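Hey, I was hoping to borrow your eyes for a little while. A protein chain has come my way and I'm curious about its shape. Take your time with it, there's no hurry, and the full record follows here:
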Amino acid sequence: MSDRERAMLAYAVEITEDATRVSPATLDGLRAHGFDDTGILQITIIASWFNYVNRIADALGVGR
């Protein structure tokens, strides 16, 4: 796995665990790995969507 992919996944974990921890330094770190604002937005939307859908499924007992 590349450093760029690790940075992306670390960001996804960070917003999953506590999105309020995201700081300008977090976003600058992503930019340093080659992500532009559109890429950061896409990562944020995709990770957030999966978190949202999984919470709904968990709350409704899907898969139990």
Notes: The domain at 3-60 is CATH 1.20.1290.10 (AhpD-like). The chain has a mean pLDDT of 96.
